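Comment thread on ticket #2218

A.B. wrote:
> Attaching the input chain for the structure job we discussed in standup.
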Amino acid sequence: MKKLKIKNDIKRKDTITRTIRVSGATFDKITALAEKNKISFNSVVNQILEYGLENIEE
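C.D. wrote:
> Ran it. Output below, let me know if you need it in another format.
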């Protein structure tokens, strides 16, 4: 499986607001990725979710 590459040029307008819960450790990892790539926390979460959905074993 190829690795996820975080991109900083993704802009979306078709968004839905939803509350999710993540562990503290996961939050810290996502926050660090967002800061490292100078993008929003939400952008990182969306990229991780899309990658997971594209690579899910059915």
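A.B. wrote:
> Thanks. Noting for the ticket: The chain is about 50% helix and 0% strand.
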